[in-house]
Specification:
Layout: H1 2-10, H2 14-45, H3 56-84, H4 87-108
Length: 123
């Protein structure tokens, strides 16, 4: 039984592989946006009277995060598919690359989270 499944998967139509690659690219972009939003909320709101508002998180960081989120699993899918020629090997590789990309994003990218210095607690 498993031999027939493996044979079918190796003969899968290239359009099926392309659809799976587009799925992982969309999944990566959506995941990037979902990880980005709560971390960038303070920079968009600006805190007290909007004094710390930094809209570069919307105009610079968001497009880069969406592009990276789409490209990381797509590149992993493409490289694994060309190397192994099996979509069931490429799918976990794309998910693992996406997970590593999200982990790298949360470790590396930290927008402003607190008000400017001097806005500490009162007396």
């Amino acid at each position: 039984m498993s031999e027939r499944i493996m044979e079918w998967a190796t003969r899968a139509h290239p359009k099926t592989w392309g659809a799976a690659a587009r799925f992982f690219a969309g999944l990566g972009a959506a995941t990037g946006a979902l990880v980005w939003a709560p971390r960038a909320a303070f920079s968009m709101d600006g805190g007290f009277e909007g004094e710390a508002r930094d809209l570069s998180v919307v105009f610079v960081d968001l497009p880069l995060i969406l592009l990276g989120g789409a490209l990381v699993p797509l590149v992993a899918w493409t490289l694994t598919t060309r190397w192994a020629r099996r979509p069931w090997v490429a799918a976990p590789a794309a998910v693992a690359a996406l997970a590593l990309g999200v982990w790298g994003l949360t470790e590396w990218w930290t927008p402003r989270q607190h008000p400017a210095p001097g806005y500490g607690p009162g007396l």
